[in-house]
Amino acid sequence: MRRVLRTLAAATASACLLLPLGAAQSSATVQSSATAATPSSAATLADPIGMTSGFYTDPHSNPAAWAAANPGDGRAAAIRDNIASRPMARWFGAWSGDIGAAVGSYVGAADAADKLPVLIAYNIPGRDACGGHSGGGAGTPAAYHSWISAFASAIGTRPALVVIEPDSLGDFSCLTQAQIKERNAMLRGALAQFRDRAPNTWTYLDAGNPAWIGASTMAQHLDGAGVREAHGFSLNISNYFGTGENTAYGNAVNGALAASYGYTRPYVVDTSRNGNGSNGEWCNPGGRRIGATSQLGGGGGAEMLLWLKTPGESDGDCGVGGGSAAGQFLPEVAYKMIFGY
Protein backbone atom coordinates (compact mmCIF):
# COMPACT_ATOMS: atom_id res chain seq x y z
CA MET A 1 0.00 0.00 0.00
CA ARG A 2 1.02 3.59 -0.56
CA ARG A 3 2.71 5.24 2.35
CA VAL A 4 1.06 8.09 4.24
CA LEU A 5 2.11 11.54 3.01
CA ARG A 6 4.91 13.01 5.05
CA THR A 7 6.58 16.38 5.07
CA LEU A 8 9.84 16.78 3.16
CA ALA A 9 11.77 17.08 6.38
CA ALA A 10 10.43 13.78 7.67
CA ALA A 11 10.95 12.09 4.32
CA THR A 12 14.61 13.03 3.86
CA ALA A 13 15.88 9.98 5.71
CA SER A 14 13.80 7.62 3.59
CA ALA A 15 14.80 9.32 0.34
CA CYS A 16 18.05 7.34 0.34
CA LEU A 17 15.97 4.26 -0.44
CA LEU A 18 15.80 5.54 -4.00
CA LEU A 19 19.58 5.69 -4.36
CA PRO A 20 21.53 2.77 -5.78
CA LEU A 21 24.59 1.65 -3.85
CA GLY A 22 27.44 4.08 -4.28
CA ALA A 23 25.23 6.91 -5.47
CA ALA A 24 24.10 8.33 -2.11
CA GLN A 25 24.23 12.02 -1.43
CA SER A 26 23.74 13.90 1.82
CA SER A 27 20.20 14.30 3.06
CA ALA A 28 20.78 18.03 3.35
CA THR A 29 21.49 18.23 -0.37
CA VAL A 30 18.38 16.24 -1.22
CA GLN A 31 16.21 18.41 1.00
CA SER A 32 17.71 21.61 -0.38
CA SER A 33 17.18 20.65 -4.01
CA ALA A 34 13.66 19.48 -3.34
CA THR A 35 12.50 22.51 -1.36
CA ALA A 36 14.44 25.56 -2.41
CA ALA A 37 12.85 25.85 -5.82
CA THR A 38 9.37 24.44 -5.41
CA PRO A 39 6.32 26.61 -6.20
CA SER A 40 4.68 28.64 -3.46
CA SER A 41 1.36 26.83 -3.99
CA ALA A 42 -0.36 23.73 -2.70
CA ALA A 43 2.11 21.72 -4.77
CA THR A 44 4.74 22.57 -2.16
CA LEU A 45 3.10 19.99 0.12
CA ALA A 46 3.48 17.21 -2.43
CA ASP A 47 6.18 14.65 -1.68
CA PRO A 48 5.92 11.69 -4.05
CA ILE A 49 9.44 10.58 -3.11
CA GLY A 50 8.62 10.41 0.57
CA MET A 51 5.39 8.53 -0.17
CA THR A 52 7.18 5.67 -1.94
CA SER A 53 10.07 3.25 -1.50
CA GLY A 54 11.86 3.63 -4.83
CA PHE A 55 11.23 4.02 -8.54
CA TYR A 56 8.77 1.71 -10.30
CA THR A 57 10.09 -0.88 -12.76
CA ASP A 58 7.49 -1.60 -15.43
CA PRO A 59 7.14 -5.38 -15.89
CA HIS A 60 5.37 -4.74 -19.21
CA SER A 61 7.88 -2.39 -20.84
CA ASN A 62 8.82 -3.07 -24.46
CA PRO A 63 12.21 -4.61 -23.58
CA ALA A 64 10.62 -6.74 -20.83
CA ALA A 65 7.93 -7.97 -23.20
CA TRP A 66 10.49 -8.76 -25.91
CA ALA A 67 12.80 -10.64 -23.53
CA ALA A 68 9.89 -12.69 -22.18
CA ALA A 69 8.70 -13.55 -25.70
CA ASN A 70 12.18 -14.51 -26.94
CA PRO A 71 13.84 -16.54 -24.16
CA GLY A 72 15.95 -18.51 -26.63
CA ASP A 73 17.46 -15.43 -28.25
CA GLY A 74 21.11 -14.95 -27.32
CA ARG A 75 20.46 -11.27 -26.57
CA ALA A 76 17.52 -11.81 -24.24
CA ALA A 77 19.38 -12.26 -20.94
CA ALA A 78 21.49 -9.13 -21.41
CA ILE A 79 18.46 -7.05 -22.40
CA ARG A 80 16.43 -8.41 -19.48
CA ASP A 81 19.18 -7.85 -16.89
CA ASN A 82 20.55 -4.51 -18.08
CA ILE A 83 17.49 -2.72 -19.48
CA ALA A 84 14.17 -4.41 -18.68
CA SER A 85 15.00 -4.72 -14.98
CA ARG A 86 15.70 -0.98 -14.62
CA PRO A 87 13.16 1.68 -13.62
CA MET A 88 12.19 3.81 -16.60
CA ALA A 89 9.36 6.06 -17.73
CA ARG A 90 6.29 4.97 -19.63
CA TRP A 91 5.11 7.23 -22.48
CA PHE A 92 1.42 7.93 -23.02
CA GLY A 93 -0.20 9.25 -26.20
CA ALA A 94 -2.98 8.47 -28.64
CA TRP A 95 -1.69 4.88 -28.88
CA SER A 96 -2.64 4.41 -25.21
CA GLY A 97 -6.34 4.25 -26.03
CA ASP A 98 -8.57 5.25 -23.12
CA ILE A 99 -6.07 7.51 -21.38
CA GLY A 100 -7.83 7.42 -18.04
CA ALA A 101 -7.84 3.62 -17.97
CA ALA A 102 -4.23 3.37 -19.20
CA VAL A 103 -2.81 5.84 -16.70
CA GLY A 104 -4.96 4.55 -13.87
CA SER A 105 -3.82 0.97 -14.42
CA TYR A 106 -0.15 1.93 -14.57
CA VAL A 107 -0.17 4.21 -11.54
CA GLY A 108 -2.30 1.71 -9.64
CA ALA A 109 0.24 -1.07 -10.21
CA ALA A 110 3.04 1.18 -8.99
CA ASP A 111 1.03 2.26 -5.96
CA ALA A 112 0.29 -1.35 -5.03
CA ALA A 113 4.05 -2.00 -5.08
CA ASP A 114 4.79 1.16 -3.03
CA LYS A 115 6.93 2.47 -5.90
CA LEU A 116 7.10 5.82 -7.69
CA PRO A 117 6.01 5.77 -11.36
CA VAL A 118 7.45 8.13 -13.96
CA LEU A 119 5.05 9.02 -16.79
CA ILE A 120 5.46 11.09 -19.94
CA ALA A 121 2.51 12.89 -21.54
CA TYR A 122 3.12 13.12 -25.29
CA ASN A 123 0.01 14.18 -27.17
CA ILE A 124 0.12 17.93 -27.72
CA PRO A 125 -1.21 19.13 -31.11
CA GLY A 126 1.61 19.71 -33.60
CA ARG A 127 3.95 17.41 -31.70
CA ASP A 128 7.58 17.22 -32.93
CA ALA A 129 7.00 20.02 -35.44
CA CYS A 130 10.70 20.41 -36.25
CA GLY A 131 11.95 16.80 -36.01
CA GLY A 132 9.00 15.24 -37.79
CA HIS A 133 9.72 11.62 -36.83
CA SER A 134 7.21 11.66 -33.95
CA GLY A 135 4.58 13.95 -35.41
CA GLY A 136 0.96 13.76 -34.37
CA GLY A 137 -0.85 14.61 -31.18
CA ALA A 138 -4.40 15.55 -30.30
CA GLY A 139 -6.40 17.14 -33.11
CA THR A 140 -7.33 20.38 -31.33
CA PRO A 141 -6.52 22.29 -28.14
CA ALA A 142 -9.95 21.31 -26.81
CA ALA A 143 -9.24 17.64 -27.44
CA TYR A 144 -5.88 18.00 -25.70
CA HIS A 145 -7.52 19.66 -22.70
CA SER A 146 -9.88 16.72 -22.32
CA TRP A 147 -7.05 14.22 -22.75
CA ILE A 148 -4.68 15.81 -20.23
CA SER A 149 -7.53 16.34 -17.77
CA ALA A 150 -8.33 12.63 -17.88
CA PHE A 151 -4.61 11.85 -17.52
CA ALA A 152 -4.31 13.93 -14.33
CA SER A 153 -7.60 12.66 -12.92
CA ALA A 154 -6.48 9.06 -13.37
CA ILE A 155 -3.45 9.68 -11.14
CA GLY A 156 -5.56 11.36 -8.48
CA THR A 157 -3.93 11.47 -5.04
CA ARG A 158 -1.43 8.71 -5.80
CA PRO A 159 2.28 9.72 -6.04
CA ALA A 160 3.84 10.18 -9.48
CA LEU A 161 6.36 12.12 -11.56
CA VAL A 162 5.06 13.42 -14.90
CA VAL A 163 7.09 14.99 -17.71
CA ILE A 164 4.80 17.09 -19.87
CA GLU A 165 5.31 17.10 -23.64
CA PRO A 166 8.98 16.52 -24.58
CA ASP A 167 10.29 18.85 -27.33
CA SER A 168 7.35 21.22 -26.99
CA LEU A 169 9.50 24.22 -25.98
CA GLY A 170 12.33 23.47 -28.39
CA ASP A 171 10.09 23.44 -31.48
CA PHE A 172 9.37 27.18 -31.58
CA SER A 173 11.42 27.77 -34.73
CA CYS A 174 8.86 25.68 -36.63
CA LEU A 175 5.82 27.52 -35.20
CA THR A 176 4.19 30.87 -35.84
CA GLN A 177 3.72 33.33 -32.98
CA ALA A 178 0.05 32.42 -32.86
CA GLN A 179 0.94 28.73 -32.59
CA ILE A 180 3.46 29.46 -29.84
CA LYS A 181 0.84 31.38 -27.88
CA GLU A 182 -1.61 28.53 -28.33
CA ARG A 183 0.96 25.93 -27.25
CA ASN A 184 1.91 27.90 -24.14
CA ALA A 185 -1.74 28.11 -23.19
CA MET A 186 -2.08 24.33 -23.52
CA LEU A 187 1.01 23.72 -21.38
CA ARG A 188 -0.16 26.11 -18.68
CA GLY A 189 -3.54 24.43 -18.79
CA ALA A 190 -1.91 21.01 -18.38
CA LEU A 191 0.00 22.19 -15.32
CA ALA A 192 -3.25 23.49 -13.84
CA GLN A 193 -4.90 20.11 -14.36
CA PHE A 194 -2.19 18.29 -12.44
CA ARG A 195 -2.20 20.94 -9.71
CA ASP A 196 -5.94 20.55 -9.22
CA ARG A 197 -6.45 16.84 -9.91
CA ALA A 198 -3.15 15.16 -8.96
CA PRO A 199 -1.87 16.92 -5.82
CA ASN A 200 0.89 14.38 -5.08
CA THR A 201 2.41 14.57 -8.57
CA TRP A 202 5.57 16.48 -9.42
CA THR A 203 5.33 17.91 -12.95
CA TYR A 204 8.22 18.83 -15.25
CA LEU A 205 8.19 20.87 -18.45
CA ASP A 206 10.78 19.79 -21.00
CA ALA A 207 13.73 22.09 -21.65
CA GLY A 208 15.42 20.27 -24.51
CA ASN A 209 19.17 19.64 -24.38
CA PRO A 210 22.43 21.62 -24.21
CA ALA A 211 22.92 21.82 -27.99
CA TRP A 212 19.45 22.94 -28.98
CA ILE A 213 18.58 26.36 -27.57
CA GLY A 214 20.61 28.82 -25.48
CA ALA A 215 19.95 28.82 -21.76
CA SER A 216 18.53 32.34 -21.58
CA THR A 217 16.13 31.66 -24.47
CA MET A 218 15.01 28.38 -22.92
CA ALA A 219 14.40 30.17 -19.63
CA GLN A 220 12.13 32.55 -21.52
CA HIS A 221 10.29 29.64 -23.12
CA LEU A 222 9.87 27.88 -19.77
CA ASP A 223 8.53 30.97 -18.07
CA GLY A 224 6.08 31.60 -20.90
CA ALA A 225 4.80 28.04 -20.61
CA GLY A 226 4.23 28.36 -16.87
CA VAL A 227 7.18 26.54 -15.29
CA ARG A 228 6.66 28.74 -12.24
CA GLU A 229 3.68 26.46 -11.51
CA ALA A 230 5.57 23.23 -12.26
CA HIS A 231 7.85 21.37 -9.90
CA GLY A 232 10.70 21.59 -12.38
CA PHE A 233 12.02 20.92 -15.89
CA SER A 234 13.60 18.00 -17.73
CA LEU A 235 16.69 17.75 -19.92
CA ASN A 236 18.14 15.44 -22.58
CA ILE A 237 14.99 13.42 -23.25
CA SER A 238 15.72 10.94 -26.05
CA ASN A 239 19.17 12.45 -26.53
CA TYR A 240 22.72 11.44 -25.72
CA PHE A 241 24.54 14.34 -24.09
CA GLY A 242 26.65 13.53 -21.04
CA THR A 243 25.34 14.24 -17.58
CA GLY A 244 27.96 16.93 -16.95
CA GLU A 245 26.95 18.82 -20.08
CA ASN A 246 23.32 18.66 -18.98
CA THR A 247 23.90 19.83 -15.44
CA ALA A 248 25.97 22.75 -16.72
CA TYR A 249 23.09 23.66 -19.03
CA GLY A 250 20.45 23.14 -16.35
CA ASN A 251 22.34 25.39 -13.97
CA ALA A 252 22.62 28.02 -16.69
CA VAL A 253 18.87 27.85 -17.35
CA ASN A 254 18.24 28.30 -13.65
CA GLY A 255 20.65 31.22 -13.59
CA ALA A 256 18.67 32.85 -16.38
CA LEU A 257 15.36 32.13 -14.63
CA ALA A 258 16.68 33.71 -11.45
CA ALA A 259 18.11 36.76 -13.19
CA SER A 260 15.07 37.47 -15.37
CA TYR A 261 12.14 36.15 -13.35
CA GLY A 262 13.30 35.79 -9.75
CA TYR A 263 12.92 32.02 -9.27
CA THR A 264 14.57 28.69 -10.10
CA ARG A 265 13.32 25.13 -10.47
CA PRO A 266 14.75 21.64 -9.87
CA TYR A 267 15.63 19.71 -13.00
CA VAL A 268 16.04 16.07 -13.99
CA VAL A 269 18.31 14.55 -16.65
CA ASP A 270 17.52 11.64 -18.97
CA THR A 271 20.54 9.34 -18.65
CA SER A 272 19.04 6.33 -20.40
CA ARG A 273 21.34 6.54 -23.43
CA ASN A 274 24.12 8.97 -22.52
CA GLY A 275 26.80 6.55 -21.32
CA ASN A 276 29.09 7.37 -24.25
CA GLY A 277 27.92 10.95 -24.68
CA SER A 278 26.76 12.45 -27.96
CA ASN A 279 28.45 12.18 -31.34
CA GLY A 280 26.43 15.13 -32.64
CA GLU A 281 23.60 13.03 -34.08
CA TRP A 282 20.18 12.82 -32.43
CA CYS A 283 18.37 10.17 -34.48
CA ASN A 284 19.50 6.60 -33.75
CA PRO A 285 23.27 7.22 -33.77
CA GLY A 286 25.46 4.16 -33.48
CA GLY A 287 27.98 3.54 -30.73
CA ARG A 288 25.88 4.92 -27.88
CA ARG A 289 25.56 3.32 -24.46
CA ILE A 290 23.10 3.15 -21.57
CA GLY A 291 23.87 5.61 -18.76
CA ALA A 292 23.48 5.89 -15.00
CA THR A 293 20.33 4.26 -13.68
CA SER A 294 17.52 6.27 -12.07
CA GLN A 295 18.57 7.90 -8.80
CA LEU A 296 18.16 10.95 -6.63
CA GLY A 297 20.74 13.63 -7.25
CA GLY A 298 23.42 13.15 -9.81
CA GLY A 299 26.12 15.62 -8.94
CA GLY A 300 26.38 19.05 -10.46
CA GLY A 301 22.89 20.15 -9.46
CA ALA A 302 20.37 17.71 -10.94
CA GLU A 303 17.50 16.76 -8.68
CA MET A 304 17.33 13.29 -10.24
CA LEU A 305 18.80 11.19 -13.01
CA LEU A 306 16.04 9.22 -14.75
CA TRP A 307 15.65 6.81 -17.63
CA LEU A 308 13.03 8.74 -19.60
CA LYS A 309 13.63 7.22 -23.04
CA THR A 310 13.64 3.41 -23.20
CA PRO A 311 17.00 2.14 -24.50
CA GLY A 312 16.43 0.22 -27.70
CA GLU A 313 13.33 2.14 -28.75
CA SER A 314 13.82 3.81 -32.11
CA ASP A 315 14.00 7.57 -32.64
CA GLY A 316 12.53 7.08 -36.12
CA ASP A 317 13.49 5.92 -39.61
CA CYS A 318 17.13 6.98 -39.43
CA GLY A 319 20.64 5.95 -38.38
CA VAL A 320 21.01 2.44 -37.01
CA GLY A 321 17.21 2.32 -36.80
CA GLY A 322 16.68 2.69 -40.53
CA GLY A 323 13.30 1.32 -41.60
CA SER A 324 11.80 1.53 -38.11
CA ALA A 325 9.09 3.74 -36.65
CA ALA A 326 9.61 6.05 -33.68
CA GLY A 327 9.05 4.11 -30.48
CA GLN A 328 9.53 0.68 -32.05
CA PHE A 329 11.70 -1.62 -29.92
CA LEU A 330 14.83 -2.80 -31.74
CA PRO A 331 16.56 -5.64 -29.84
CA GLU A 332 19.83 -5.38 -31.74
CA VAL A 333 20.08 -1.66 -31.00
CA ALA A 334 19.27 -2.34 -27.33
CA TYR A 335 21.87 -5.12 -27.15
CA LYS A 336 24.62 -2.98 -28.63
CA MET A 337 23.69 -0.09 -26.37
CA ILE A 338 24.40 -2.26 -23.32
CA PHE A 339 28.01 -2.69 -24.43
CA GLY A 340 28.50 0.63 -26.23
CA TYR A 341 29.11 -0.53 -29.79
From TrEMBL:
Biological process GO terms, please? cellulose catabolic process
Q: Where is the signal peptide?
A: 1-28
Gene3D superfamilies documented for this protein: 1, 4-beta cellobiohydrolase
Enzyme Commission code(s) on record: 3.2.1.-
Q: What class of enzyme is it?
A: hydrolase
Gene Ontology MF annotations: hydrolase activity, hydrolyzing O-glycosyl compounds
Residues annotated as catalytic:
167, 315
Q: Which parts of the sequence bind substrate?
A: 91, 212, 239, 282, 309, 313
Give the matching InterPro entries.
Answer: Beta_cellobiohydrolase, Beta_cellobiohydrolase_sf, Glyco_hydro_6_CS
Keyword Nucleus among UniProt keywords: no
Which key words tag this protein in UniProt?
Carbohydrate metabolism, Cellulose degradation, Disulfide bond, Glycosidase, Hydrolase, Polysaccharide degradation, Signal
Name the family.
Answer: Belongs to the glycosyl hydrolase family 6.
Instruction: Please give the name of this protein.
Output: Glucanase
Per the UniProt entry, what species is this protein from, by scientific name?
Answer: Streptomyces cavourensis
